[in-house]
Amino acid sequence: MIEYGTNVVGGVTPGKGGTSHLDRPVFNTVKDAVDQAGADTSIIFVPPAFAADAIMEAADAGIKVIIAITEGIPVADMIKANNYVKERNSRLIGPNCPGVITPGEAKVGIMPGFVFKKGTVGIVSKSGTLTYEAADQVVKQGLGITTAIGIGGDPIIGTTTKEAVELLMNDPETELIIMIGEIGGQLEADAAKWVKADGNRKPVVGFIAGETAPAGRTMGHAGAIVGGSDDTAAAKKQIMRDNGIHVVDSPAEIGKKVKEILG
């Protein structure tokens, strides 16, 4: 992140306050990082058992954007942390996500920065790897990315597909949005219905992973489990098509479809 140009002002590890790492100060608490270094964003790599507490500590310290990379935080912990964050008007991205990148400006996450080039296409994705894949295809078509948001694949996440799509819909630099989802849950259906209700202001290209997944079995991400007939890839794709979204059946087609729409 530092190499990419992100303004990393320090780290937080309890008990290591007063030391430094990578030429940046280390603090005992997030509050110290806010008070002494002016931190306004936090990226969390804390192990699952303690990660919800780290999220709540960041919100309590006044951090406005909290990005949780950790995978496998217990659901009961996340319900508590999610409500806590919302009450303090902070935005949580993740958990179990690759983070957020605005090419040429900053990346707060673990994505390969060299793949992303500046442009007019926004990406919202539950999958980390497919975020990079979509960005790579867009760049190979001679286009680029405004901001890519990896929202995470756990059952309870802070920022939903719809909320992330809405942010990009209202971003003046973004001309087209790529929405990558997967089986399980209602997030993509909710986002698709919102896009139509909002008047389809910008074209949205959609893809749903997990076409061949058997019902009732968790696949990859903890949130990727088919619970009902609307949770399947086929059902989600139909809902997206019904709401005016340009759906592709293979991730290999994302770049070509974007190029076709933007010309």
TrEMBL record:
Substrate binds at residue 132. Pathway: Carbohydrate metabolism; tricarboxylic acid cycle; succinate from succinyl-CoA (ligase route): step 1/1. Keywords: Hydrogenosome, Ligase, Mitochondrion, Nucleotide-binding, Tricarboxylic acid cycle. Belongs to the succinate/malate CoA ligase alpha subunit family. This is Succinate--CoA ligase [ADP-forming] subunit alpha, mitochondrial. Residues 1-73 form the CoA-binding domain. Transmembrane segments: none annotated. CoA binds at residues 16, 69-71. It catalyses: succinate + ATP + CoA = succinyl-CoA + ADP + phosphate. It comes from Tuber aestivum (summer truffle). The keyword Oxidoreductase does not apply. One of its GO terms (molecular function) is nucleotide binding. Succinyl-CoA synthetase functions in the citric acid cycle (TCA), coupling the hydrolysis of succinyl-CoA to the synthesis of ATP and thus represents the only step of substrate-level phosphorylation in the TCA. The alpha subunit of the enzyme binds the substrates coenzyme A and phosphate, while succinate binding and nucleotide specificity is provided by the beta subunit. GO terms for biological process: tricarboxylic acid cycle. Heterodimer of an alpha and a beta subunit. NCBIfam families: PRK05678.1 (NF004230), sucCoAalpha (TIGR01019). GO terms for cellular component: mitochondrion; succinate-CoA ligase complex (ADP-forming). SUPFAM superfamilies: NAD(P)-binding Rossmann-fold domains, Succinyl-CoA synthetase domains. Its main location: other. It is found in: Hydrogenosome lumen; Mitochondrion. Its EC number is 6.2.1.5. PANTHER family: SUCCINATE--COA LIGASE [ADP_GDP-FORMING] SUBUNIT ALPHA, MITOCHONDRIAL, SUCCINYL-COA LIGASE SUBUNIT ALPHA. It comes from the Eukaryota. The active site is at 221 (tele-phosphohistidine intermediate). It is an enzyme of class 6 (ligase).
